[in-house]
Design brief:
13 helices; 17 strands; OB fold (Dihydrolipoamide Acetyltransferase, E2P); 4 domains; four-stranded antiparallel sheet; six-stranded mixed sheet; Rossmann fold; alpha/beta
Length: 443
């Protein structure tokens, strides 16, 4: 069975919620909707305090090509436009809305009918994605219309759909593939039409056998879509590793998937594209996994954007007494939250509550030169060296050693027997090198 060859690890899967059907989370009393939920320029707020808004209404307009609209996920009154701490730990502008019912804009088709006939042209699909606020739902939140706009001189011959969900604990994409399989396949057909290609592959790891069987059965009636089982290995959900596993093509250092004629989208994104194009529904909600070994009722919930994380935790049985850390995303690449008032955003695939016994790091010891970090790096980097260079402030040398290629998967830190904070220092060095490179461009 296919997988990528270089590096990788096998952390415990802990897919505690894989069999939990998606439930709809009740509406909160209020929401805080950040205007920057995507890579690129933040959207510009176009509503004012006291305005009444409907569910699906644009409240912040895209600002440039690499930007998307932000929509209200509820109906009610704008309480204020203020700053809020988001999942990164930094403050950003958000629109605060007090919920008053759930009145939707008239343009959204809220029926349960699955529409398979794709009427929009390629250009109209790309435009609709930007208007509807569609971004990559795998976590990177790159505006989808940008990926669909193949640059002049480049070509795409294959669409890859990422259904891998290789992070431990997370099951949101798994449930979506089981429960909205046909809609996802229509969404894939829409993406193929936008790219003007005839072939797509859906990569799914074989710990999701039910999703593989289900989608294979459905895909028989869709032209050009192949469901591809993959051997379980982390971080197979990363674009470069998924492309290598499925096609054997290798994306060169510093280049993008389109440089090997491939575009990659997440399974959740394909569903969001279906809703935007066929139902005229903007991206105002997503499936989020709330899980943890000591949580009373872990599950998968369809959550409106802007809902406080505290409501999810409450629905899952409340905060366990032994909670030591709350993570947004997966345990390998996620970030610890500073409080539970942080809103659910487009890129939030899961919330994991770790008990104190699993939250503390082991003491950092001197490097024992075992080279395990080198052997597991999926990009062939030397993490021990990159950490040392960042520690010593040798950022030019770190740039030569391709520190910016690091995808921050955490495999090196996970496998280090000395408990060294490899990824922490690599992140520091990487951000510094990126800043240096930008300054060179400005000069």
């Amino acid at each position: 069975m296919k997988t990528f060859q270089k590096g990788g690890i096998h952390p415990p899967e802990n897919k505690l919620t894989a069999a939990k059907q998606t439930e709809v989370l009740p509406l909160p009393v209020s929401v805080a909707i950040p205007v920057s939920q995507h890579i690129g320029a933040p959207a510009t707020v176009i509503v004012n305090k006291g305005d009444s808004v409907k569910t699906g209404q644009v409240i912040a307009g895209s600002k440039g090509f690499v930007s998307v609209n932000i929509h209200s996920s509820v109906s009610g009154k704008v309480n204020k436009i203020d700053s809020i701490v988001d999942t990164t730990g930094y403050k950003q502008t958000a629109v605060f809305i007090d919920v008053e019912g759930d009145e939707w804009v008239d343009s959204v088709d809220r029926s349960d009918d699955i529409i398979t006939d794709i009427k929009l042209s390629s250009e109209e699909i790309i435009s609709r994605c930007q208007e509807s606020g569609i971004v990559g739902l795998g976590g990177a939140t790159f505006p989808s219309h940008v990926k669909l706009s193949v640059p002049s001189g480049k070509r795409c011959d294959l669409l890859i759909i990422n259904g891998v969900e290789c992070e431990p604990y997370l099951t949101a994409d798994h449930r979506l593939m089981l429960e909205k399989g046909k809609e996802i396949l229509v969404g894939i057909s829409i993406l193929m039409k936008a790219l003007k290609i005839k072939r797509a592959q859906v990569g799914i790891e074989n710990n999701k056998t039910d999703a593989i069987v289900h989608l294979k059965k459905l895909a028989a009636s869709f032209e050009g879509i192949e469901i591809c089982p993959l051997r379980v290995k982390y971080p197979q959900g990363a674009e470069k590793q998924l492309i290598k596993a499925l096609t054997g093509r290798e994306v060169p250092s510093g280049r993008l998937p389109i440089d090997v004629n491939v575009v990659v989208h997440n399974a959740g994104t394909a569903f969001a594209v279906y809703e935007a194009v066929q139902k005229n529904k903007p991206l105002i909600e997503r499936v989020v996994t709330i899980t943890g070994k000591t949580l009373a009722n872990p599950g998968n919930y369809l959550v409106r954007i802007g809902t406080p994380v505290s409501l999810l935790i409450e629905k899952a049985g409340g905060l366990p007494d032994d909670t030591g850390k709350i993570i947004s995303g997966g345990p390998m690449m996620g970030k610890a939250l500073i409080n539970t008032d942080i809103p659910v955003v487009k890129g939030m695939s899961g919330i994991i509550l770790f008990p104190s016994s699993e939250s503390d790091r082991m003491p950092s010891q001197p490097c024992i030169r075992c080279a395990k970090c080198v052997s597991v790096c999926p990009l062939g980097l030397e993490p021990y060296l990159l950490m040392l260079l960042a520690q010593k402030g040798l950022f030019e040398k770190a740039e030569e050693e391709r520190i910016t290629d690091c995808m921050e998967c955490g495999s090196c830190s996970y496998t280090c027997p000395a408990g060294r904070p490899l990824l922490d220092y690599i992140r520091l060095g990487k951000s510094t090198v990126i800043k240096m490179a930008r300054e060179r461009v400005v000069k």
